[in-house]
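Usage

Read records sequentially. Each one opens with the input sequence:
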Amino acid sequence: MDGDAAVEPEVDSFSLVLPLPYRVAIIIVLGIWAWGLNLHYLHLIKIDVPALIRYPPRQAEHHHHSTYRLASFLSVPLIASLLLFWAVTRGDRQAVLRWQILPQSYLLLLVLCFLLPLKRMSRSGRLHFLRSLKRISLGGLAEVQDGKFGDILLADVLTSYAKVLGDLFVATCMLLDTKTSSTAKPNRGCGGAYLVPLIISIPSMIRLRQCLIEYYRVRRNQSTSSGWGGQHLANALKYFSAFPVIILSALQRGYDPTKSHLSEAGLFRLWMFFVFVNSFYSFYWDVAKDWDLSLFSSSRERNNPEYPWGLRRYRYFHAKEVYYSAIVIDFLLRCTWSFKLSPHLDHFNDLEGGIFLMELLEVLRRWIWIFFRVETEWVRNNRGPATDDVLLGDFAAKLDED
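and closes with the structure output:
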């Protein structure tokens, strides 16, 4: 033989059915559907999301209709591409490796749909999204009157898509690698041991910078009502706590005892400590700061007879069980997501389906979080629903009557 035979890329069982590029596409499209549902339901209970994010009002149709239209437009070719991929590959490993053009073509279509100025595909909404994305990516943060809340909301959503962004890079890197295929088993070391962790950390960097910008704005225009900005520093610390988790994960993935001062077991214990800190700090912030609930407040405030235990006086979601359920779900998924934020976990198992499930669950958690975060912001601006507003319980009752 003239040389060694080329090593064929490995294909795991889950990638035979759903290769990495399709997983990335599915989660992105599901996120658009989820945003449409957020807009739709919040509109039904008279919370004006576009006003909060300073999005221009519309006369012809509601914003959620155009979001649904965009999601539908993206879903049809995705389903068609998947069905065609399954038809031509039929679970054959060689065929899966050979037909990477199908999922990659859809990813290209997905990008073009956001960039091309097509009027019937929620053009104004896409342009608003791209402008906001560009602003926050360059380290900016709009003023309150220009849509600061929208920038913060988008940056928080990006933190939930951190692992998806990493997978998008991996899929692209594998496409450009002549020795493998983007439909093979994901190589999350593609591009080097630390490039994927760096990409995963970018959303937290963006949000951290936003917190620091808010802090310096408060310091520059300090008043009695705004305080000294300590809450923004505390919020920045929350996002900073994600970096040790990501860094220690990368060190575990490429562990070299000759270059490390810690044993592998010690490194793992240190990583577990920071996972615990990040998970519980983030959960506390969700409940106490993002949702303004009194669960972690003083006993007097938590047991105030004017509202259900651990909640708050002004609420648009009338049923207290809705809040309690959201708290429990957020706690469970916060802990799970912190583990899956770690790129080294796939080193210990090849359960690509499990990783995909965790990413889906994080989209679910963020979808739920948005309902309560937007409701909280609306309450802060309007001090609760007016007497003629439809509350969640009232709306459900009306549905039962119809």
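Summary fields computed downstream for this record:
- Residues 1-5, 386-402 have pLDDT under 50 and may be disordered.
- The first helix runs from residue 13 to 17.
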